[in-house]
Amino acid sequence: MATATPRLMGAEVKRKEDPRLLTGTSAYVGDITVPGMQYVAFVRSPHAHATIGKIDASRATARPGVTHVVTGQDIKAYCQPIPLGGPSAEGGGGAAETSVGRKHYPLSIGTVRHVGEPVAAVIATSEAVAVDAAADVVVDWQPLPAVADQLSALKDGAPQLHADAARNVEHETSIKMGEPDAAFSKAHKVVKQRMISQRLCGVPMEPRAALAMPDPLVGGVTVWSTHQAPHNLRNDVATLLGLAQQSVRVIAPEVGGGFGVKFGVYPEDATLAVIARRYRLPVRWTETRIEHMTSTTHGRAQVTDLEAAVDADGTIRALRMHVIADIGAYPIFTFIPDLTLLMGVGVYKFTDVDLKSTCVFTNSTPVAAYRGAGRPEAAYYLERLVDVIAQDLGKPPEEVRRKNFIPPSAFPYTTPTGQKYDSGEYDRALTKALEISHYQKLRNEQKERLERNDRTLLGVGMAVYVEMCGFGPFESAVVRVEPGGGVTAFTGTSAHGQGHETTFAQIIADHLGVDFDKIVVRHGDTLNTPMGNGTGGSRSLAVGGSAILNATMKVQQKARRLAAHMLEAAPDDVVFESGRYQVKGAPAKALTIAEIAPRAYGEGLPEGVESGLEATDFFRPPQLVYPFGAHVAVVEIDRDTGHTRVREFVSVDDCGVRISPMLVAGQVHGGLAQGIAQALMEEVVYGPDGQLVTGSLMDYAVPHAEDLPMFTTDQTVTPTPFNPMGAKGIGEAATIGSTPAIVNAVVDALKTFGVRHLDMPLKGERVWGAQQTARK
User: Fold this and answer.
1) What single DSSP character describes residue 659?
2) What is the reported pLDDT for 88?
3) Bridge-partner residues for 139, per DSSP?
4) DSSP 3-state assignment of 732?
5) Angle, CA 361 vertex, CA 235 and CA 140 arms, to 5°
């Protein structure tokens, strides 16, 4: 009698990726060399806004080892301007293609609009020579007035960045549903608060890098890049260089983190591709940390005015929200503030809304996707606003939340912003998080500390979030059983640390009966992977995993037919059970996939069955999916210094069915680190002149292990009906829920001083200063 094979989906398994990553035997772009390769360094603007005069490269070209110096004028004939807002896995594009005046060449011509914008590229036989020669290039800069923040950029008389953008406004979006004005006119109380979601930098472990090599076979170019969506980059490079898409090959080898900042086509990618084709020369560039701070897209950067119409019992009747978003110098991906509006009701049932976003150009690094991309901002505003309402009404924050939750009976639920929430039990998640954190004991401890005037204040904060993810339009997969019985799978998503190879192998193993160790999952090379949309927006499992599962089931169906032929049984009588293909009711008559595979590639196939054992699937999700959860943060604040320590953090997340629990835990831990860091320490700061004050990791604070507690994670499971696994996304969830929970906890500790709201990051001096102001 056959014994059942253990199910891998839902099991704790070791990551397939880790042995090569932990031993350093794998290759990143910076590890790859090709014969004759040279190196590129960029000449970048030291000014936030300036006209480019003459570029004198004579000293640079005289330096031994320097091959060429190219400017925007040199490559203009070989390259189109960078497209405005390309396709994105975050659910939308960027600016309208009609906005011709807002485009710029990869090496800028005429005007620069932010510090770090590239205007020339030096090619040399070593990286050191290229960097030294770039410093030799003399540019005749003619500085122009600059504006570094969105509120200043909207003022009359502010410096104008683009001739076709009056008041520096890139676009505005409004969503008005129900009768918000009537609700406000009848409100028991109108609660108002301005909130800031500050500008952040991605800071992945691996900075950006690119290597471009001419491809004489097709007259095109091969580009290795640290990128989240290789096919998108391929298509963009082809468009820029006027090439057929099949003439461009993009390879994303190991990618050391992305968080959304490795999307789209950057000037450096396009410049290297042009150089490789024009000079028939392989060239590589690796970003420095300072270049990363100035030239890789930033995230968040919103100032938002909020108003809620509330009843005396805490019922929220209507919401007004105006998001004023800084999008930086160019429109890379300006849909993010609109995503904030689309998630503008969160987990709450009010239907009268007046929501608006205004996207504003400033002389700063462009703002685009960063982990969560618009959804963390929405959750932060709503969850802070609920706490402000509770404080103003003198009610417990959990009571106000429960009063306003969308009830489980309402699902599927269409929000006034048009989102079609699939499933949710928000109160269940909050109740579980409060129970795990021993909430009432914490409140008692808080009261005792205040009564004895303890030097350390205790604060307890909570947040309940919902997010949109699983963006389409599709994702792809090829699953191939090799003649020897192993499996090679190809996915159109492209991992940068998430563990796709592990999760997808778990799905395949369970549905084909192949040993986990005999499955190889490949991704990141446009030459051998089917057209895909890459990794972002928590889409890889819900969309990419569904394609893997569907392709696997097609292979299983063919394997059953082959097994029936080999076992001399009717096809309908063969079932896949316990990892084998057996005749119903006769488990002794069974075959393994390793026994079936050789027949698929040999003689004696049943009539009408083609050779081979593989299948392709393009899964188009019918709609988005909406994971949710509840977080509880416990902080201790030193009254004398304002220093905040996160003592405990409880995260209860619902991402539907979990395929790989260990990977879910890893995503949650990483997301919590980034969300907590925004609340307490991270901030990109520009001076009024557009100079970057936090231009290195000496100035920009990222969290250390000692800044974070051991996390307590738990779950509820609410499957989605919109993919075959019932899975939702988890990659961004913890970043969305943790930031408001921490800020709510800090303000909770300070409310005894009358503090109602503090803007992030809540560094010691800000928290200390709030106490001093209250005392005065």
Assistant:
1) S
2) 46
3) 55
4) coil
5) 85
Strands 519-522 and 487-491: parallel
The tokens of 360 are what? 């504003």
Helix (H) or strand (E) holding 669: helix 661-680
Contacts of 457 (CB under 8 A, 6+ apart): 449, 450, 636, 637, 639, 749, 750, 752
- The reply to whether omega before 473 is within 30° of 0 (cis) is yes
Whether omega before 412 lies within 30 degrees of 0, making that bond cis, reads yes
| Residue 122, helix vs strand vs coil | strand
Q: What is the pLDDT of residues 655-671, one digit of tens each?
A: 999 999 999 999 999 99
Counting residues of the chain whose pLDDT is more than 90, the rounded percentage is 95
Which range among 145-154, 382-391, 601-610 shows the weakest confidence by mean pLDDT? Answer: 601-610
∠328-330-77 over CA atoms, to 5°?
150
Q: Which amino acid is at 446?
A: Q
Task: Say how many CA atoms lie within 13 Å of 325 toward its Cβ.
Answer: 33
- The C-alpha atoms of residue 11 and residue 281 are separated, in whole angstroms, by 48
Residue that the structure tokens 């000692």 belong to: 706
Residue whose token pair is 């932060």:
380
Sign of CA dihedral 106, 109, 113, 115: positive
- The answer to whether residue 639 scores a pLDDT higher than 60 is yes
Cα 112 to Cα 133: distance, rounded to the nearest angstrom: 21
Alpha carbon 597 to chain centroid, angstroms: 39
Distance between CA atoms of residues 491 and 530, nearest Å: 7
End-to-end CA distance of the chain: 81
Residues contacting 24, CB < 8 A, separation 6+: none
**How far is the C-alpha of 411 from the C-alpha of 735, rounded, in Å?**
25
**Residue bearing tokens 């080892």:** 65
3-state secondary structure of 440: helix
Task: Decide the pairing of beta strands 298-310 and 456-466.
Answer: unpaired
- 371 CB neighbour count, 10 Å cutoff: 26
Do β-strands 38-44 and 118-124 pair in parallel, antiparallel, or remain unpaired? antiparallel
Given a contact cutoff of 8 angstroms between Cβ atoms, the answer to whether 479 and 508 are in contact is yes
Q: Extract the tokens encoding 559.
A: 């394997």
For residue 644 the two structure tokens come to 């905040």
Amino acid at 244: A
Both tokens of 649, joined, read 């953090």
Crossing angle of the two packed helices 500-512 and 546-567, in degrees rounded to 10: 30
The beta strand positions in 400-543, using DSSP E, are 413-414, 420-421, 456-466, 475-481, 487-491, 519-522
Residue 763 burial (10 A CB sphere; 0-12, 13-18, 19+)? middle
Tell me the sheet residues that pair with 575.
582
Reduced to 3 states (helix: H, G, I; strand: E, B; else coil), residue 736 is helix
CB atoms within 10 A of CB 540: 31
Q: In a 3-state reduction of DSSP, which class is residue 713?
A: strand
CA R_g for the chain:
28
Instruction: List, for residues 256-309, the tens digit of each pLDDT value.
Output: 999 999 999 999 999 999 999 999 999 999 999 999 999 999 999 999 999 999
How far is it, in rounded angstroms, from Cα 531 to Cα 140?
45
| Rounded CA separation 296/765 (Å) | 29
Residue 331 neighbours by CB under 8 Å, 6+ apart: 84, 85, 94, 95, 99, 102, 170, 359, 361, 366
Contact 500, 521 (CB under 8 A): yes
pLDDT, one tens digit per residue, over 698-745 is 999 999 999 999 999 999 999 999 999 999 999 999 999 999 999 999
**Alpha-carbon distance 336 to 170, whole Å?**
13
What is the DSSP track for 387-425? HHHHHHHT--HHHHHHHHBPPGGG-SEE-TTS-EE----
**H/E segment holding residue 747:** helix 733-750
SS3 (DSSP) at 646: strand
Q: Is 218 left (phi over 0), alpha (psi -120 to 50) or beta?
A: alpha
State the pLDDT at residue 2: 37
